[in-house]
Structures
1.
Amino acid sequence: MSSLTAQELATQPAVWRRAAALAEPSDTALPQPGERVAVVGCGTSWFMAQAYAALREAAGQGETDAFAASEFRYARQYDRVLTISRSGTTTEVLALLDRLSGRIPTSALTADPTTPIKQAADRLVVLDFADEQSVVQTRFATSALALLRAHLELHGELPTGVHPVARAADDAERAIAEPLPEGLLTAEQISFLGTDWTNGLALEAGLKMREAARFWTESYPAMEYRHGPIAIAAPGRAVWVFGGLPDGLDAQIARTGALLVTDSAAPGMDPMADLVRVHRLAVALAEARGLDPDRPQALTRSVML
Ligand code: F1P
């Protein structure tokens, strides 16, 4: 019997399509073009906030910051603050919403509308069908991003090279069906690289491997990789790039002997679908190490302080 995490992550293509179908241009709970927006969350939700913030700004729909809830800059002015929280119970997110109440309009994207976030936020967007039993998030996070991507699509052109969610979901079917890249199950370490909106995905990929498999990962913007982090690249270690690969970096990595994975480099797989392959790898590595991905060490479904 496969783990709950494995079962839930495999539903992502269908759940993304459902989430994207919820997007409506006039949905006033979601950021409108021209608004100055901050997107906030913790852990995985913070990384999805980063991905969306970069996409929204690149799509020309308005300045968008992303913060970990504990690091919000209260002196800044926003037209709206959007929080992302699967559980709706994360302490730092609720504290932020409480502090902003009556000052800045707030929206909350959550899987569970029966939690305190319902009262804490001015507006609620519910993806209950994407909720998970697993502690380690996969499909809620990516479905939240799918909905936000689809909402951007409705308001104008996507940034160059960014596909519609429909294409991402098709790619995710492939990501679930195809064999994982060779050599990773025996790797000692993986560094994930991203550019622009895929930086959030690279951060999330690294977190997923640490959470589910207690595996050593690091994550960097691709152009930053030469500025030090490449020093640990070596045979038996890997570098996984989300989105495009900066000129010349492939040759530099090849010289270190590290394995390079670049399947979402243009015109490859959608980077969000590529993240699904990391989800699969995290589960496979946990199992190979005798760990139960449904019972990650020292983690709870939500951090309530
Ligand atoms: C956020 C979160 C998860 C993390 C861990 C603790 O939860 O930080 O991303 O993996 O399990 O909670 P939420 O606010 O999205 O419910």
2.
Amino acid sequence: MKATALAPANIAFIKYWGKADPPTGEAGDALRLPLNSSISMNLSACTTTTTVEFSDRYKEDSIESTDGEFLQKEVNRVTKHLDRLRERAQTNQRAKVLTKNSFPKSAGVASSASGFAALTVAGAKALDLALSDNDLTILARLGSGSACRSIPDGFVMWHRGKSSQTSYAYSLYPYDYWDLRDVLVVVEASNKKISTTEGMEKVRTSPFWNRRLRDMPDKIKTMKKALATKNFRLLGEIIEAEAVNMHAVMMTQRPPLFYWNGATMELIRAVQLWRAEGLPVYFTIDAGPNVHLICEVKDEDTVVQKVKNLSVLEQVIVNQPSRGAHVVQNHLF
Ligand code: PMV
């Protein structure tokens, strides 16, 4: 009744911003069906390891991190996710959950994707649930949308779908298909203030969300072509335009959401300058101020060196494409 899983965070090349189903007011109850399909790459250096044990000994669910922290903010969402697992296994047993991130919490890296992917895979294994890979991604999606993309290997597509059963993620290419790098530049260590769940509820207040959706099928087609032909320039151009597009929607919502800070902007300018000087590197940004620099392995050292010469950074985390979530043998307790 005990199992442990390791799951990577992922960086979206085509982003998920906005749900298709009306928000019910409680995060865990929503189906988290996205407005559009999305594409991402799993990150080798930003992982969560989680041990789950179900037992009659436990009177209630507990969730803690290995640094001794009781995750008060997360407990409702995690309990709801454990309920989904319990329902499938027809059990009432409570669980102990212990979780550990490979990256410092202060890095401000969103951990909901790796967190819910690890919880899903460890929980399903602990309860001996016979779930297909597809089913695991569907289950992870109910915990946190982007978590479904952290289950399959390497480069991953989350198919939008029109129902819970048809909104799942699958691998487009394994992790060793293309030796890209994601040089994550942490410019601010604090946690973001507005959650993505909250922020997405207001997506329809932006005058641009409809336009974004209309352009999406073409953008996804071009992204798939860039991946299939390993055309780095095409890939980078879509990644960057897509990040700016999503943030333009965020910034024009009511109330507006500004996840960028001054350092984010400084990095964007630096990337444009480096590119003008001949260095092929492109940026993307999720729901926070930190900047992901996407480059090919041959340019990794140059990019890292250039970043270190800037005054803005707190920390640099270099990621390769990685495997998806999987069971591991060493338990955390
Ligand atoms: O699944 P969530 O609630 O963590 O939302 C993720 C949203 C973005 O990171 C901004 C985009 C994405 O597709 O990962």
3.
Amino acid sequence: MSAAVTPAEQVREQLAALGLTVAATALDGLAQQAVREQWALTTFVGRLLDAEQQARRERTIQSRLHMAHLPYRKTLDTYDFAAQPGVDERRIRELATLRFLAHGDNVLLLGPPGVGKTHLAVALAIATIHAGHSAYFISAAELLVRLSRAAIERRVETQWQVYTKPRLLIIDELGYGQFDRAEANLLFQLVSRRYEKGSLIITSNRSYAEWGELLGDAVLATAILDRLLHHSETITIRGESYRLREKRQAGLVGATALTAPTTDD
Ligand code: ADP
Ligand code: MG
């Protein structure tokens, strides 16, 4: 003889059938706590729904972190401001409030290799995702390869969606490769499409004065910078490479190596 289904079991099954699996699991524990602590009925229902909602938020965050394609997961907590006096901590903390995101402003992180540009961009992406938005990270080189290929195969329209949809787009390491004309045009189109709609973070080892040469076209470079910088914040980091600093402190490299940025990693 099979035992009759208790009311508690039935509720658990119904919650699970409705897809509220976390609430189903939490039901017994919360019901006991409700009796022990004499909760109002609405408090009990509220706590049950809270458990489900919180688990969903966490799942969304995990899925967005995955979809963001971050090269690593580092936050501001692990950024050593003391080690990088070239960075104004207050300005970075202000950026981390994500006010720039609300206005669709851009952030440009400029400086030599190893000073923490990517680290800071990743930290802002993680903050963005935790605040309930989407982010996407891509290196400039990879972005151009993908867009160029899509343009040749006449499917660039679907590619635009990938780079225009996320609330925050990070283009990392602009400036390591020379652009050809078609690539400069694609970058212009991307910047135009996101202009005043969604924030961009760009990291680069080149100063704005060098962008004309980098993009192979001074007029196009001006047009791109015009849109990028209209609503933007530029953080220029002057300082030595964090990696080299660590090696130097460990006595692995001499001070002379620090003058040659190409020796970084
Ligand atoms: P960049 O993008 O400017 O070349 P990265 O952000 O890639 O430099 O930094 C290189 C490495 O050094 C990363 O592992 C990063 O986490 C670390 N790093 C750089 N600056 C700092 C810092 N001030 N505090 C902690 N880690 C740092
Ligand atoms: Mg970098």
